Amino acid sequence: MEFSHSYEDNDRQNPFCEWNAWPTGPMNTILKTVILLTLSNIFMTFAWYSHLRNLSGAKWYIAAMASWGIALFEYLIQVPANRIGYTSLNLGQLKIIQEVITLSVFVPFAVMYMHQSLNLNYLWAGLCLIGAVFFIFRA
Length: 139
Description:
This protein has 139 residues and is mainly α. 68% of the residues lie in helices and 0% in strands. It has one domain (26-137). It has five helices and no strands. 18% of the residues are buried.
């Protein structure tokens, strides 16, 4: 795996985050990024779609305000996650990781929370993302 940024001590050069107690290095930076982006994506998925179930009878602007409130927490996690990740990953790699996480969070949400049926289209989408990971991370 090749990373576009080669800072000597990634975490110490990132004054925004307070995750410096974690071990340093590109793989640990990626792990921190993936954990934070997963948490962020859980909030994002609920902000984008839970109003379809929970506020379906409410006015659209009530649902929008509720979604906006949830999205605030998503941004409070997503911004540091992207800043941490960008110390070891290029922008394309960061985006593809986010897309893999998005599908990984969305499918269980759709099935378990929104009571949607699981179908093969999710598998095909996942296989396309595996291809995207291969191409974006190859040397």
